[in-house]
Write a structure and sequence with these properties.
Elements (H helix, E strand, L loop, with lengths): L5 H7 L2 E5 L6 H10 L4 E5 L5 H8 L8 E5 L4 H10 L4 E2 L5 H9 L4 E2 L1 E2 L2 H10 L4 E3 L7 H7 L8 E4 L7 H7 L3 E4 L11 H21 L1
Helix pairs in contact: 2-9, 4-5, 7-8, 8-9
Amino acid sequence: MSRITLQSIVNEAPIIAIVRRPKVDPVRCIENLFRAGIRLIEITMDTPDAVQVLESQLPRVPPNALLGAGTVTDIARAEAALSAGAAFIVTPNIELDVIRTVRAHGIPVMPGALTPTEICAASKAGADFVKVFPASAVGPLYFRELRGPFERIPLMATGGIDLENASEYIKAGADALGIGSALMPKEKGEFDRCAEVAQRLLEVARNARATR
């Protein structure tokens, strides 16, 4: 990563926006999120034309932001995302071949895990952040419990997070939040509303981290 590191962005803006099969143009979603101040965006590989979107948008990413790929479930998707220039890779589970492939390319990888055993295994395999998914199944207090044995493992809470509970996940110990549906417009006229939500989420996350 020649421009800026994933960790430095998370330190300033701990929201990873997830563009997953949006009901409106994914390119407009990405552009709108970056304009709203989001600095980390993943487009999931199950989104139609995800590779083409990556290739077209990477030259337009702001210099202090990164565009990556999510839902990378196998080597084929990993290689497609890497070839398209993804700046980081997110997976829903621990797929060791995918983690090794991404690490070999020198970019960050955030594999999904849920149990303590899985979280530890993901970290040992080379995760830059461990994506705790689905976070909604365990709730914020789960992260407080994890911080006992896993104080030094960077954790990203993903799944069911919105303005109502974002602060609680950060206060409980999550380092970053992966947020999808709360940031995605359901129709073309909702881009301004989603931009406002993005800005509020960033503010909430920053304030929560400052008080924990």
